[in-house]
User: What shape does this take?
Amino acid sequence: MRLINFCRLLGLVLCGNAVTVYFVSHSFRLAVVTTLGCSLLLQLGYFASVLFLIWRSSCAGKAGQGAGLFDRSQEVRYQSRDDDAHRNETQDVQQRNQTLGISLLLP
Assistant: This one.
């Protein structure tokens, strides 16, 4: 969930909570206190979900590293010297294009 969507949803839930508590209890103070408590709980939930997503992506990355190392070893075994020369030329051309682009931008 994007931050802007989270902020909109948070505002909607908090306003709904405040209005509901005020109409039920007819107490402005109780509405403010419960709204602040609800805000804290929602923010803790969002933070926990972000931590969970970070943890899940790191676990998926670790699982993919083993397969990635195996794939690279296979590529290196069958790689010829012509491929290395072509790759170096391609990198040189890209670097020259970037340098040319920068020099065209400068007065």
In short: The chain has a mean pLDDT of 76. Residues 54 and 87 are 34 Å apart (CA to CA).
